[in-house]
Amino acid sequence: MIVLLTGGTGYIGSHVCVELLNSGHDVVIADNLSNSKIGVVERINKIAGNSSVVFRKLDLRDYESLELVFHEFQFDAVMHFAGYKAVGESVYCPLKYYENNVQGSINLLKAMLKYNVKRIVFSSSATVYGMSEDVPFHEYSPLNAVNPYGRTKFFIEEILRDFQTANKDVMVCILRYFNPVGAHKSGLIGEDPTGIPNNLMPFIVHVAAGEQKKLSIFGSDYSTPDGTCVRDYIHVADLALGHTLALEKHKQDSGCFVYNLGRGKGISVLQMVRTFQKVNGIMIDYEFSERREGDIAVSYAANTKAYSVLGWKPENTLEDMCRDSWRWYKNSKLMKL
Ligand code: WQD
Question: Whose CA is nearest to atom 14 of ligand 1?
Fold first, then answer.
């Protein structure tokens, strides 16, 4: 199949691109490079060997340019990753998030309709489950996004449902990620945050590298075994595999399908820190600080649906996530990225 990846030079998109190329698909990446670098394209091609990805610099808010790409290629499917994803930033500039994430998605669906593209896999997030304490989260758990970023994911999911209801022969697959971490085993692609990292693993890596003095652990008084927050960390390579399995499974279907992509294991912040120290032999200095606004105590997936329907079995361990994150960081410095 010819697959369009919006946001394909980003963290998740680049790893899915490698999986798609390795599965024999042709891939076109459309990305505005607002949160990624063009050098990823060359490194994706290096990993994928003889197949190569096509790149088009494109902003989904520019409908005319988007149409040109749909006119140039006869896409069989779209995987939609493009979107801003910083929870904290979304609170301070919600319109930026709604215009980019929601309007961009509407433009994408308009182009798909006009050019008769019938399949879309959407990069959603466990953030749509909100602050519920009723864990693990199932695909049928109530949705209650509590920040503008999470609400853009929720709204786009609803727009996709309505779009599929109005266009019965369309296949929509919604994948709800828990906490993606890690990097491709080659060390050539990985998470490459600009500025001071928001997320836990990139911050731990920056402390290990001496770029940050110490890790602030946001809250040590949660009702969890060690008092720190619990999350469902999933290796980005396992996440990428979930996308190709979903597309393969549903490529002849019509309807709307939703899957949680998480390991189904809750890991605390302290457990992550200790695992990183053990695996990489590096001490991570940390202090306990105030809770972070908007954090929930525990979030982890019920992932049996992806397992039973897609045959998806996440195999990477927490040790793999820590080892691969650190390898990627060291390589990215060697490659002067
Ligand atoms: C994990 C845990 C923090 C940094 C968010 C989005 C989600 C997805 C992943 C986009 C929390 C703690 C963190 C630090 C810390 N993003 N922490 N010190 O908030 O679970 O999920 O990122 O798709 O949609 O909601 O991930 O990595 O920010 O935090 O103590 O310096 O680590 O409190 O408990 P989060 P995170």
Answer: 200
